[in-house]
Amino acid sequence: AAARTRDKRALRAALDAQEVPQPRWAPFDDPDHLPDVGFPCVVKPAGLAGSQGVIRADDKVTARVAAERARRIACDGPLLVEEFVPGAEVAVEAILRSGALEVLALFDKPDPLDGPYFEETIYVTPSRLPAATQEALARVTADAARAIGLEEGPVHAELRIAHDAGGDRIRVIDVAARSIGGLCARALRFGAGISLEEVILRHALGMPLADLERERAASGVMMLPIPTSGVLRAVHGQDAARAVPGIVGLEISIPRNRPVVALPEGDRYLGFLFARADTPDAVEAALRRAHASLEVVIETE
Predict the structure, then answer these.
(1) Distance of CA 24 to CAs 12, 27, 100, 170, 284, Å?
(2) What CATH number was assigned to the domain covering residues 218-299?
(3) DSSP state of 31
(4) Burial class (CB in 10 A: 0-12, 13-18, 19+), 216
(5) Cβ(269)–Cβ(226) under 8 Å?
(6) pLDDT tens digits for the chain (301 residues)?
(7) CA–CA separation, 65 vs 188, rounded Å?
(8) Number of H helices and number of E strands within the chain?
């Protein structure tokens, strides 16, 4: 089951078999024979993560170019093409216990992810979505985990909410049998202050998990984007960013004078900003203000 989450083709097939809502999709290997799922569409490698190689195309010409580029990024690995689903995207952080899914946090992603590349930035929790929408997202995530065959352990899922005349339509974008990536887990604390990693380890060891309620404060993380490829020379303004009210941490994860690669070829972020405040709006504002304080110096060829 976990292997299915590392192969987007197998994941999509498992979701289709159980009629879990997801974008129209089709596998392909040859960019000259791209299946028709309509436009706009999204081309992506089946085995990569972190938005690496994920490219939107709006017509046949750009789709062919995107498919060639994705194939190079995937080192000739398997590919798939999906219908582009417009709308807000969220991330669900959950844990499975004996097949029952318990949502630990629902993150809003306030920055639009419309392409042509899909670099994630801000995650904020608790979600500001209506309660009914949050419940529906939890149900669809549970259905997806069941369809894949997951029964125990962490789940990180990404879903989109498309708005049309018929109401909200939830579509599964991805499901992973792991926790949230990078340093993002630092944005979460549970019960008496335990970390997400401790929650996962206690569950894996069969230890009791008494209180999995997230802390009362709103929290968030910003994955710092790499604006262009080159050599990172400096990140100015770090002290000013840390001084922004609500900011509780800043980690630059790439040392100076190292190469940096922007999406869609890149596979990592420049670093992470963390914030806590009374409300999700205040968290988002703090992250944006702190990010605006940073000046990233990248030397290009």
Answers:
(1) 9, 11, 27, 13, 32
(2) 3.30.470.20
(3) G
(4) exposed
(5) yes
(6) 889 999 999 999 999 999 999 999 999 999 999 999 999 999 999 999 989 999 999 999 999 999 999 999 999 999 999 999 999 999 999 999 999 999 999 999 999 999 999 999 999 999 999 999 999 999 999 999 999 999 999 999 999 998 876 667 999 999 999 999 889 999 999 987 899 999 999 999 998 887 788 988 999 999 999 999 999 999 999 999 999 999 999 999 999 999 999 999 999 999 999 999 999 999 999 999 999 999 999 999 7
(7) 39
(8) 6, 17
Cβ(179)–Cβ(31) below 8 Å: no
Query: In 3-state terms, the chain is what percent helix, strand and coil (to 5)?
Result: 25, 35, 40
Report which of 231, 234, 280, 276 is spatially closest to residue 258, judged by C-alpha positions. Answer: 231
Residue type, 167: G
Q: Positive or negative CA dihedral for 200, 202, 208, 210?
A: negative
Residue written as token pair 């900003």: 273
Is 88-204 a CATH 3.30.460.80 domain?
Answer: no
Q: Residue 38 and residue 83: Cα distance in Å, rounded?
A: 6
Contacts of residue 275, defined as CB under 8 A and 6 or more positions apart, other chains included, come to 219, 220, 221, 222, 246, 247, 248, 283, 286, 287, 290
pTM, two decimals, is 0.94
Q: Where are the domains of the chain?
A: 24-83, 88-204, 218-299
Tell me the CB-side half-sphere exposure of residue 199, using CA atoms within 13 A: 32
Fold: same for 24-83 and 88-204: no
**CATH-assigned architecture of domain 24-83:** 2-Layer Sandwich (3.30)
Distance, in Å, from the CA atom of 42 to the CA atom of 40, rounded to the nearest integer, reads: 7
Query: Would you tell me how many other CB atoms lie within 10 Å of the CB of residue 193?
Result: 8
